[in-house]
Amino acid sequence: MIIDCDPGVDDCIALFAAFASPEFELLGVTTVAGNVPVEVCARNALCAAALAGRVDVPVFRGCDRPLRVAPAFADHIHGETGLGNAALPEPARPLQDAHAVDFIIDTLRRAPEASVTLAPTGPLTNIATALRRAPEIARGVRELVLMGGADAAGGNITPKAEFNFYADPHAAQTVMQSGLKLTVLGLDVTLQLRCTAARMARLHAADTPVTRAAAAMIGHVNAVYGAVYGAEGAALHDPCVIAYLLRPELFAVRPAHVALLTAPEAMRGHAGVSPPGPERPANAVWVDGVDAEAAFSLILERMTRL
Fold it and tell me: How many Å separate Cα 197 from the centre of its chain?
């Protein structure tokens, strides 16, 4: 598996859960501009790996801007460092010299057919760039399970769009049209997995270096969610990807046709989700339900292993 991410608080939680899961053979972590600039995202991924004791996993810095639109960041949610109130240890190894896109291309070219899972939890710039530059790499992809989009839940950056798809709508459109085996976890499901007061208490009670860092990060976002959205408990968006890959039976899914809009500006990044039909064949599995308590317990259990 390759995790492509923009850490970011919830990306770090997803990384911790993945780092603790022996079910995954982690080939690398690639980073992209999203929640914060790419150089900050790359450093945060290295720091998360250092805290988790996973210095064996190489980290690559990727694209610093979207394919065609101006960059958009979410530091108003994640804080200037992208880590909320947490202070992670210094990186234990340097970034890899190769660019993330080159790593993705080279890895998939060498991989046996349908053998590598891609797990993007940020804007899809790296993935789309790799597919555009070397379309033949699709043969190496087993499946692509991503966090992005919104349908019934509405958007979190505009009324119509979720942040990852809004940040690089042309990249998201490229991936939706790629023909890959896609599973999409958007706000319809991720907003169901919130770090409520009761769950924060469980996180604090675990009292390990990783869970203490996670609590500091999520505590910052909880406060922002209350002030900005009037909501109790930050949504654990990106960890849903890892939970799905570990325990897909915890989630409700349906085949769908997902059409990504890039214009007009008011609809930028909107994911139009409709039942498949003769004129709109299914191009993804759309996830719209989760056993939130079981998913949170799974993520917490994994983090406490580190």
Answer: 23
The catalytically annotated residue of 170, 237, 257, 270 is 237
Higher pLDDT, 127 or 79: 127
Mean pLDDT calculated for residue range 105-117:
98
Q: Are 44 and 12 in contact (CB under 8 A)?
A: yes
CATH class of 2-303: alpha beta
* 232 band by pLDDT with thresholds 50, 70 and 90: confident
The stretches of 118-275 forming alpha helices (DSSP H) are 125-133, 163-167, 169-176, 187-190, 197-206, 209-228, 239-246
Residues linked to residue 31 through DSSP beta bridges, in sequence order: 5, 61
Closest CA to 251 of 282, 288, 196, 283: 288
Mean pLDDT of 194-222: 96
CA angle at residue 288 from 287 to 290, to 5 degrees? 95
pLDDT exceeds 90 at position 87:
no
Q: List the structure tokens of 183.
A: 């599973």
* Sign of the CA dihedral with 74 first, then 156, 4, and 249 last: positive
> What pLDDT score was predicted for residue 229?
73
Whether 270 sits among the annotated catalytic residues: the reply is: no
Domain ranges (residues) in the chain: 2-303
CA distances from 187 to 101, 150, 184, 192, 251 (A): 27, 5, 10, 8, 13
Q: Cβ contacts of residue 111 below 8 Å, gap of 6+?
A: 140
Cut 0.90: pTM above it: yes
